[in-house]
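Lab notebook, entry 370. We have the chain sequence and a SMILES string for flavin-adenine dinucleotide, and the next step in the workflow is to get a structural model of the bound complex before anyone spends time on docking refinements. Request logged below.

Task: model protein plus flavin-adenine dinucleotide, output structure tokens.
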Amino acid sequence: MKEYDVVVVGAGPGGSSTAEYAARAGLSVLFIDSRKEIGWPVQCGEFMPKTDEIRHIFPDVETPEELFDVPDALVSRPTKIIRMISPSMREYDVGFSGYSTERRAFDKYLADKAGKAGAELMTDTKFMGREGRNTVITTKGKFRADIIVGADGPFSSVRKTVGANPPSLLYPAMSTTMDGEFGDVVEMYFGNVAPAGYAWIIPKEGGANVGLGADPNLTDKKVGFYARDFMAQIGKKFNTKPRQIVAGGWVPMSGPLGKTVYDNVLLVGDAAGHVMATNGGGICIAMICGRIAGRAIGEHLNNHRSLDDYEAQWRNAVGKDLETARRMMKYASFAFSSNWLLSILFRTAGTSGLSKVIKCKSIFSLKDWT
Ligand SMILES: Cc1cc2nc3c(=O)[nH]c(=O)nc-3n(C[C@H](O)[C@H](O)[C@H](O)COP(=O)(O)OP(=O)(O)OC[C@H]3O[C@@H](n4cnc5c(N)ncnc54)[C@H](O)[C@@H]3O)c2cc1C
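Result returned:
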């Protein structure tokens, strides 16, 4: 049986970042993915905050530029504004520096970086379970690993092997790419168009990512119905149609799990609930926590530091902000039951309040009342 210091399950942003930093620490790393092609099919809005915005949202993350200053080729369309549109169609323009990317290329870029650092990638390889503490069973055979990382998304199979509970709230979401010219403003529509969630148009070069996430109590079929309805409306308005298959996925919206280290198993990214609950974005957090995981594993195997350092370090870096986002969503949830209430909430919060919420800041800060 082939042996590795680390086996990472999942080669999305979380898994590839973990693999890269563990390999950089001099460890032997295998990272596997059940997909035949990394990053495909795309199940994402493909929106990323720019490095300065990440610095603002997560001020405790060290050297974000090392992770997020990506090559220009990965930037499809830079954007400076997110337009939040209330159920009464009132527009709130929030300043937010970001860009759309091609997730298919973005995920490959991260996997390539891990490969260049020395990690070995195996695609079309599904994690099937564990045997004892150190044996990883996959569709391509068994591997021995000192440390096993579950970066295998919201329904993590690795997480099941340690008996951890899944995120308590998962939003179904669907997206596609449509051809056309959609300018350079990201649009988020709230209300009946996407019950208890939002629909988006994220401009890309020569098109836009169009999709929505909605009430988790809706069936898959119903979410598909809302998504197709929204896409049809956009198609009519811009005289276009989806260029790519409509693909769906699930977004953990209940904040990070209470525990992400189980003996020699670590959970990273969506598998750990590492998503901003106020906007559903998780790519950048998966990368931040992946880097922390890779380094912590290095410190553990090379210098006998505790693996629990991973948990403490990611909580220091992003825990407070993710918790603020979770709380803000919880407070706002009452308004999602009614278009009228939601429109009032938007008016009350105003552009500055909405800007805070989307950037994981509290709108109840003492500064606002003094
Ligand atoms: C429709 C939609 C739109 C979104 N839009 C955005 C957005 O615009 N911006 C943003 O920041 N976030 C967005 N997100 C969230 C974002 O996609 C995730 O937070 C992010 O991909 C998390 O990265 P990850 O590496 O943890 O997991 P993933 O990217 O999900 O990667 C997990 C990998 O594990 C693999 N895998 C799963 N099970 C196994 C197994 N048993 N064996 C082997 N491999 C396995 C999968 O094939 C996958 O490649 C969106 C999500 C959805 C569903």
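Notes for the group: Residues 9-15, 32-35, 43-47, 126-127, 151-153, 157, 173-175, 211, 249, 251, 269-271, 275, 280-284, 286 surround flavin-adenine dinucleotide (CB under 6 Å). Worth checking against the assay data. The radius of gyration is 20 Å.
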